[in-house]
Structures are given as structure tokens and as C-alpha cells.
Write a sequence for this structure.
């Protein structure tokens, strides 16, 4: 990371090798769209390189990158939602902008399309912050303290946000069985 | 049980519910974990809730995303990132060159004007030197660009807040039916402060945006005035008003117009 901060582009590949799969998983869990997730991971590393100068040497790299990735994912989600809301501001049915029109991924076929879609819709229906906290806890198994540090939230806020998220999902997934 | 006793019980039970959620999420510290498990033994409704949450979380653990791998090899991704960095660097260099070229072009213009066939003037007739005229023009140009950029950024940020308010319903308290809008109210107050700074910029450059800016300001004032736990009817009223004014679409169009 120190090399990156000095503008050494060769340092990019080893950094990406260490973190790209983890970041991809987080962003994919957040956005539920494979192409968008790849774009966001790409943007994350571009930003990491261009802002490497602002990285403090004592700071850990993983939370710093995770924070960039989550913020980028939130921005991407908002842009998609803005477009959707701008197109139909009056007659909304109360559901989220979806990605249903996309082809199912191979993983979805394995699990069963209907179940995967239900999970995807339920996770997408979480408000931004709840979704970020839930994804970091349940897809990345980060501790609540790490989540608080990554998202710059108070520990109590992380706890109450996670509590709301799991209850929201319980309601959304009521009656669904694997 | 007295009313006060019932209220106290509800309060304590709400705290336990949060702990039960965190227990189901495997997120409690060991001491608290043991305490909560002991509570489950004596609280059938908590036990049932814990069971239901575990069931849902086990279902979510089967989400294929857990095992997903990027659909692009690392080497390709590195190449794409490298290309983007190069492109951004190129764009920045071009931008700097454009700005550096401005004084040169302006100086060349001044030279042409000086050399052109025009009535001779006494040397002291012009109080301003050509250099001062150039920097003045450059300054005005930069102010105009700044006014447009700041306005676009303000509109985009305002739109993000209004979108969140219009579409998200985070329960503050399920029993009272209130909705958590503390973040959005804070962000609206920040934006209103930024709005007052925008007014100091070159207004003529963003004159066409005035009606949209006014609408946005009104809606932000509504959001900023909400309690942290707002009544859902108040949010619905704001949502309806945003829709009636077609504000999100107008912001999009105006931002695009200002960006040229």
C-alpha cells in the first residue's frame, strides 16, 4: 500500500489479488448484480490508487478498501434507484427497482431460481445502511466492532441496525423454505 | 400487572429482543451470549423469535452469493483498472493543459489586438495592463464553471436525500408506526447550509436552475423539519409532493443541462 501511495502502479496487482474476491462478494451481496459488482470492484481499486496518498500508514488496508467498495455500491444503487424513480414518480407499487430482467446466473440455477430470487429481493428491500451492516456481518462475518469501524458508525447504531435488518428479512422471507 | 409495570416490561423486553437478534446473528460477546441464552429459557416468545430468526438466517446462508466468484480473471481486472487509471490521468492532464492554454490564447488575442490597425492611444490611456485583463477574464470563467459544478453537486446530493425519504421506510418504532429519518433530516440541514453558500456564487450562470433550486429547497426544509422518528403520514405527504412536482426528474434534467 505504501508503494501504491508513492504512485507505483506495479503494486496494484498484488493488492488486488489479496482483496478483489472479498470485495466482489460484498458488493455482489449488496447490489445483487454480477456486472455491476465487477464495475464497482474496478472503481474501488481505481479510487484506492488515486487516493492512496490519503491512506494513513498505521491504518489497515482491508477496512479502508471495504469502506470505499461499500460507498461505491451505495452510490451505484442510488443512481439506479434515481433513474427508476425519475421514470415513474407517481405510480409506484412500493417495490424496489429490480434486476429481474437479467439472465439468471449459474449459481441461481443450482439453488433454484425462485428461492434465489426471493433472497435477492429480500436483501435488496433492506434500506441502505441496514443492507450494508447485514452484508458485512452475514456475508463477510465481520465483527460488530469491525463493521462500526468500516462504516464509521457507533457500535450501538450497528447493533440496532443489524437487529432491524434481521427482523425485516424475517418478515420478507416469511413462509419461504429452502 | 399495572400500566407502569407493563411499560417497564415492554421496555426490557425490547432490549432483550435486540439481544436475541444479535444472538441469532452470532454477534454477541461470550458473556452477553450466555446471559441471553439463559433468558431464552425463561421467555417462550423470545425462544420462538430466536428460532424463527435462526431459520431465516440459515436460509440466507444458502444464498449462492456466498460462493460466487468474479466473472473476470484477475489479470483482466487488473488490466481494466490500469486502463481506467491511465484514462483518468490522461483526462486530468488534458484538463490542466486546457487551463494552461487559456492564458496563452488570451495573450495571443491581446497581441493581435495590439498589433491591429487601430487609432494610436497615448500610453497612459489604459489604466489596466493586458495581463490584468487576462487574469480577470480567467477568474470570471473559473467562477462560472465553479457555479455550475457546485450547483450540480448540490442537486445530486439533494436528490439522493429525497430519493431515500421517498422510498425507504425504516421502522423507528413498530408499535407507534414511526419511521427513522434522522440521517435524512441531518443531511437536509447540511444541504440547506450549502444552499446558502451557493447563493454567493455567480447566479447568472445557473439562472435557469432557479425554479428547481427553489423546489428542492422547499422539500429539504420539509425533511429537515421532521423529527428523527417521523410519522409515516408526514413522510407520505412529502413523497406525494415530490411526485406531484416531478422533482426527481426535474433534478436529473437540470443537472444534465448544467453539465452541458
Amino acid at each position: 500500500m505504501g508503494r501504491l501511495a508513492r504512485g507505483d502502479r506495479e503494486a496494484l496487482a498484488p493488492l488486488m489479488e489479496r482483496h478483489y474476491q472479498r470485495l466482489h462478494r460484498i458488493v455482489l451481496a449488496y447490489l445483487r448484480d454480477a456486472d455491476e459488482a465487477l464495475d464497482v470492484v474496478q472503481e474501488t481499486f481505481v479510487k484506492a490508487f488515486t487516493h492512496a496518498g490519503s491512506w494513513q500508514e498505521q491504518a489497515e488496508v482491508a477496512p479502508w478498501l471495504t469502506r470505499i467498495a461499500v460507498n461505491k455500491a451505495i452510490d451505484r444503487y442510488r443512481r439506479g434507484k434515481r433513474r427508476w424513480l425519475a421514470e415513474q414518480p407517481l405510480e409506484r407499487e412500493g417495490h424496489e427497482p429490480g434486476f429481474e430482467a437479467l439472465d439468471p446466473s449459474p449459481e441461481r440455477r443450482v439453488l433454484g431460481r425462485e428461492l434465489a430470487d426471493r433472497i435477492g429481493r429480500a436483501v435488496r428491500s433492506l434500506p441502505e445502511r441496514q443492507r450494508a451492516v447485514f452484508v458485512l456481518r452475514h456475508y463477510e462475518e465481520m465483527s460488530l466492532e469491525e463493521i462500526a469501524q468500516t462504516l464509521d458508525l457507533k457500535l450501538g447504531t450497528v447493533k440496532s441496525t443489524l437487529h432491524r435488518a434481521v427482523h425485516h428479512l424475517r418478515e420478507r422471507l416469511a413462509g419461504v423454505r429452502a | 400487572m399495572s400500566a407502569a409495570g407493563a411499560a417497564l416490561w415492554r421496555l426490557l423486553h425490547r432490549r432483550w429482543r435486540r439481544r436475541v437478534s444479535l444472538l441469532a446473528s452470532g454477534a454477541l460477546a461470550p458473556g452477553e451470549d450466555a446471559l441471553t441464552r439463559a433468558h431464552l429459557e425463561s421467555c417462550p416468545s423470545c425462544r420462538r423469535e430466536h428460532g424463527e430468526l435462526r431459520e431465516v438466517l440459515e436460509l440466507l446462508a444458502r444464498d449462492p452469493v456466498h460462493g460466487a466468484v468474479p466473472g473476470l480473471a484477475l489479470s483482466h481486472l487488473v488490466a481494466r483498472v490500469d486502463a481506467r487509471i491511465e484514462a483518468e490521468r490522461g483526462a486530468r492532464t488534458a484538463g490542466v493543459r486546457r487551463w494552461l492554454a487559456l492564458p496563452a490564447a488570451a495573450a495571443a488575442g491581446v497581441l493581435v489586438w495590439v498589433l491591429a490597425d487601430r487609432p494610436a492611444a497615448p500610453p497612459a490611456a489604459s489604466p489596466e495592463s493586458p495581463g490584468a485583463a487576462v487574469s480577470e477574464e480567467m477568474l470570471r470563467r473559473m467562477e462560472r464553471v465553479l457555479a455550475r459544478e457546485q450547483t450540480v453537486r448540490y442537486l445530486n446530493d439533494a436528490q439522493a436525500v429525497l430519493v431515500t425519504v421517498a422510498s425507504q421506510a425504516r421502522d423507528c418504532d413498530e408499535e407507534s408506526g414511526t419511521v427513522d429519518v434522522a440521517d435524512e433530516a441531518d443531511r437536509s440541514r447540511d444541504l440547506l447550509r450549502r444552499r446558502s453558500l451557493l447563493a454567493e456564487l455567480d447566479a447568472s450562470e445557473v439562472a435557469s436552475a432557479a425554479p428547481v433550486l427553489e423546489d428542492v429547497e422547499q422539500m429539504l426544509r420539509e425533511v429537515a423539519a421532521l423529527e428523527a422518528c417521523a410519522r409515516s403520514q408526514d413522510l407520505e405527504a412529502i413523497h406525494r409532493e415530490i411526485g406531484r412536482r416531478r422533482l426527481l426528474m426535474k433534478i436529473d434534467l437540470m443537472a444534465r443541462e448544467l453539465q452541458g
Q: What stands out?
A: DSSP finds nine helices and three strands in chain B. Confidence is low (pLDDT under 50) at residues 119-132 of chain B. The two ends of chain B are 68 Å apart (CA to CA). Chain B touches chain A through 55 residues (CB under 8 Å).
